[in-house]
Design a protein that fits this description.
The complex is a heterotrimer. By secondary structure, chain A is an all-alpha fold. Chain A has one domain (2-90). Chain A has helices at 2-25, 29-54, 59-87. Chain A is elongated. The radius of gyration of chain B is 16 Å and the shape is flat. Chain B has helices at residues 5-27, 31-56, 60-86. Chain B has 3 helices and no strands. Chain C has 2 domains: 13-61; 67-170, no CATH class. Chain C has 5 helices and 3 strands, in the order αααβαββα. Chain C has a 3-stranded antiparallel β-sheet, covered by helices on one side. Classes of the chains: A mainly alpha, B mainly alpha, C mainly alpha. Chains in contact: A-B, A-C. At the A-B interface, helix 1, helix 2 and helix 3 of A face helix 1, helix 2 and helix 3 of B.
Chain lengths: 105, 88, 175
């Protein structure tokens, strides 16, 4: 049981790390939102599941926390994205986007 | 509770994730990037608090995580509204 | 006589009961016990909050509160979890590829869902699926930021397909 829990914790931490890495690597703010939201949401759920396996008696509160993250995180990201678009932040485009044939280079 | 090797690795990865988000938060370059970084950081913190609760063996931290997550969401929406207002 | 529990434009009695049960469940989950004292306290607080929220109950009118709504709801949850995991594997691949395979664009799609609640759930689902992020919802159109738009194909059509995949299940329990 401990091993299974640890595996979920490890996967959760790995996705969280990937999300943060995406936050640093992505070229513009919209892509950063994408990386940040998705990876961190699943990472958080996996971490919480791992903790739930370690402490099954905490299940009810852990469930509420997962629901909270699942509902608020995408909503928050969409709200930011919408605000940015309204404030006039244009999405980044790859330089060679007009000629898809050359985009392989 | 004593931590297993896997748990220590998981904690280290979480720590690096927090550092990377902080990196983006400090570097920017613009305000929107900082908001996104803060939003991501808040979710990492929420799950981090849950992990902390387990490793310290105290369910009190779960309540902290719950309130923190709720307030972070409200804060993000408030900041988003402010950015929206500054636009055209 | 104008009884307060009559159906109004604010939402029906059923929606009030739904909110009450939702709040009571949340209370009991947070309390973590089924003690009579907790039940009484939770029921009182939930009732007060439901009463205060009466003018805002209209948001729940999008829900179909029938037993027939349960299977689509469950199949939607299943689809959602699968998509969430796929989205993360996809994002992990992109982040770890040194050349950052990105071809972002904004795509507009139409939804057939009528209620604000239905559109909210759809927008949230799209944000957590592979490569897409809902930027704005205006009337029945969703503005989606897409990480990698396929160059040759009709991107609008593919985006429409993503939306319809969720809509098929969502239509079962929201309007």
């Amino acid at each position: 049981m401990r091993l299974l829990a640890d595996l979920f914790l490890l996967v959760g931490a790995a996705f969280t790390l990937l999300g943060a890495l995406g936050l640093v690597r992505m070229p513009d703010v919209y892509n950063r939102i994408q990386a940040g939201t998705k990876a961190v949401t699943l990472g958080a759920l996996s971490l919480i599941l791992g903790i739930g396996l370690l402490y099954p008696q905490w299940w009810s509160k852990l469930l509420v926390i997962s629901l909270l993250i699942l509902v608020t995180n995408p909503l928050g990201s969409s709200t930011i994205a919408r605000a940015l678009l309204m404030a006039g932040v244009a999405p980044w485009k790859k330089a060679e986007a007009k000629t898809p044939q050359e985009s392989e280079t | 509770m004593t931590l297993t090797l896997l748990e220590i690795i998981a904690l280290a990865m979480l720590g690096i994730a927090v550092l990377l988000s902080l990196f983006r938060l400090i570097l920017g370059p613009a305000a929107p990037d900082r908001v996104v970084a803060a939003d991501t950081l808040s979710v990492i913190t929420t799950s981090g608090l849950v992990v902390l609760a387990a490793f310290l063996g105290s369910p009190l931290y779960l309540d902290v995580a719950l309130i923190y997550g709720t307030l972070a969401f409200v804060g993000v929406v408030a900041i988003a509204r402010a950015i929206e207002g500054n636009g055209s | 006589m104008n009884t307060p529990i009559r159906e109004t434009s604010d939402g029906t009695l059923a929606h009030g009961v739904f909110l009450f049960l939702l709040l009571l469940t949340l209370w009991l989950l947070l309390a973590g016990s089924l003690d009579p004292a907790e039940l009484v306290a939770g029921a009182t607080v939930s009732l007060v909050v439901t009463m205060i929220s009466r003018p805002h109950l209209a948001i729940f009118t999008g829900l179909k509160l029938t037993p027939a709504a349960i299977p689509p709801f469950l199949s939607y949850l299943g689809l959602f979890m699968v998509e969430l995991v796929r989205a993360n594997l996809d994002m992990a691949r992109r982040v770890l590829t040194p050349s950052l395979p990105l071809q972002p664009a904004l795509v507009e799609v139409k939804t057939e869902l009528q209620s604000p609640l239905g559109r909210l759930i759809l927008a949230n689902s799209i944000t957590l699926t592979p490569g897409t992020l809902t930027v704005d919802v205006q009337e029945d159109r969703l503005l989606i930021h897409w990480v990698e738009v396929p160059p040759d194909l009709d991107s609008e059509k593919i985006a429409q397909a993503i939306t319809q995949k969720f809509e098929r299940h969502l239509k079962g329990f929201v309007k």
